[in-house]
Amino acid sequence: MSSQGKTQVSRNLEEKTILVVRTFNAPLASVWRAYTESELLDQWWGPEPWRAETKYMNFAEGGHWLYAMVGPDGTTQWARMNYKKIVPQRLIEGEDAFCDENGMMNTTFPVNQWINKFNENSGSTTVEHKLIFETLEGLQTIVDMGFEQGFSTGLDQLEALLAMQTV
Predict the structure, then answer these.
(1) What is the pTM of this model?
(2) Does residue 2 fall inside a structural domain?
(3) Position 154 in a domain
(4) Is residue 167 included in any domain, yes or no?
(5) Could you tell me the CATH number of the domain that includes residue 59?
(6) 32 lies in which domain range?
(7) Starting from the edge strand earliest in sequence, which strands make up the sheet with 51-57, in order?
(8) pLDDT of residue 116
(9) How many structural domains comprise the chain?
(10) Contact between 51 and 73 (Cβ < 8 Å)
């Protein structure tokens, strides 16, 4: 299975948002699993040579995912996704933030809201990721940290994982 198009990234500075769209030539059920099961997320979420390592995941409204981005030299950067709303195989809404290894939010970095929408069409699945920031400075901080390139690389890794047909 391969992507039907590369990652599309756009910014709306007026709304303080980043929109990332990617279509995969894979069934919705497979793509959904790749976003909701930590064993699969750990295989694609971090852009190589970085990788994700899940410490804890409760994929449910009110639950959260606590994970580390681990660099090739062993450097770790912890992050937490708080799940706010889940509509199976349609929508995941949450709050994303940097944190410590215990999940305590790091307020020196921006917190942003994520809205992930999943749509299936004739066997392919499009995922729209909308990140909403409180300030333009917060949006720019994430862009300056390499979010757009890093997340695009992660989606390429998801494409490769889906192509293996093990999801």
Answers:
(1) 0.93
(2) no
(3) no
(4) no
(5) 3.30.530.20
(6) 8-132
(7) 8-12, 17-24, 124-133, 112-121, 91-99, 76-87, 64-70, 51-57
(8) 98
(9) 1
(10) no
- Summarised one tens digit per residue, pLDDT across range 22-46 is 999 999 999 999 999 999 999 999 8
Long-range contacts of 101-110 (CB under 8 A, 24+ apart): 101/55, 101/68, 101/76, 103/56, 103/64, 103/66, 103/78, 105/80, 109/141, 110/134, 110/135, 110/137, 110/138, 110/139, 110/141, 110/142
- Does a structural domain hold residue 124? yes
CA 150 – CA 53 distance, rounded (Å): 16
Q: How far is CA 71 from the centre of its chain?
A: 17
117: closest CA among 94, 133, 93, 137?
Answer: 93
DSSP state of 47: P
Alpha helices in the chain (DSSP H): 28-36, 38-44, 136-144, 147-163
Query: Which amino acid type is present at position 114?
Result: W
Q: What is the pLDDT of residues 92-127, one digit of tens each?
A: 999 999 999 999 999 899 999 999 999 999 989 999
User: Which ranges in 111-164 belong to alpha helices (H)?
Assistant: 136-144, 147-163
Whether the predicted pLDDT of 13 surpasses 50: yes
Selection from 65, 54, 72, 51 nearest residue 161 by Cα: 51
